[in-house]
Design brief:
259 residues, mainly alpha, 13 helices, globular
Length: 259
């Protein structure tokens, strides 16, 4: 059933579209163009960041996965209200289906990103590629945990989905996607603020993606013990996922009545 729901979500999203799944790339490529031209060159963000386009697209790919899991999962119960009210199915399957669809879109963007690294002659064939696995796991675990929690709350409080949209936008700008972590560490003189910023799970995930796929970044400074920080964040994420699922189970009993 999960497989069928994922296929349904993907087909429904691009039904009767001439370009079909190519629209998966439309938004991130448009964002890349805007950030590359406006922030990178007009505002000078590209200074000190080699291969700025690869750097930005790497961050956009990572954040896009998290945002799609969280935003889609938050509205997934309401979007499937007909099924929830008519038949019993494990309610968790709906946030999981949006996660599966998000991973498919993520895979398409990753292919484009890898091709881009090949075009510029800097494929990520280095030991730092190992950072990709914990970074991806952090995005999935935290995204799914928050999707379960917010999806359940959204059934009772419909403003949740709009709040999630605003929060994800803030999280995007609070992560080193269009600017570098190195710039933050140099501009902020207070050590504990830099530590709090760095240990944000999304910051760690984005840094992990950049360390793995942005070959030009091999020569720049990175946070100390990045891999250890990521593994700790992943453990915290698993605990959060367990707690979110418990809350989801407590709230799902009245889903049909609320819907």
């Amino acid at each position: 059933m999960l497989s069928l729901l994922i296929k349904r979500d993907l087909k429904a999203r691009y039904k009767d579209s001439a370009l079909g799944f190519l629209w998966v790339l439309a938004r991130p490529l448009m964002q890349l163009a805007i950030y590359f031209v406006v922030l990178g060159h007009f505002l000078g963000a590209a200074r000190g960041i080699p291969d700025f386009a690869i750097y930005v697209f790497t961050g956009l790919t990572a954040m896009g996965l998290f945002q799609e899991i969280l935003v889609g999962g938050t509205g997934s119960i309401l979007a499937n209200a007909g099924l929830v009210k008519k038949v019993y199915v494990p309610r968790e399957v709906f946030p999981l289906a949006t996660t599966g669809a998000a991973l498919f879109n993520f895979g398409v963007q990753m292919v484009v990103l890898v091709v881009a690294t090949l075009v510029i002659g800097k494929p990520p064939l280095h030991a730092e590629l190992l950072y990709l696995l914990p970074a991806l796991a952090i995005l999935i675990v935290f995204g799914l945990a928050l999707a379960l929690l917010c999806g359940a709350i959204n059934v009772y409080l419909r403003d949740t989905q709009y709040l999630v949209d605003v929060v994800t936008m803030l999280l995007f700008w609070a992560s080193p996607v269009v600017y570098s972590w190195q710039m933050v560490s140099q501009l902020v003189n207070t050590g504990w603020i830099v530590e709090v910023y760095t240990n944000n799970p999304l910051t760690l995930a984005v840094l992990g993606f950049q360390r793995a796929l942005w070959v030009a970044g091999d020569a720049v400074e990175w946070p100390d013990g990045l891999m250890i920080r990521m593994l700790i964040a992943l453990i915290i994420g698993v605990i959060l996922l367990f707690l979110s699922h418990r809350v989801f189970l407590r709230l799902q009993g009245n889903f049909a009545q609320e819907l």
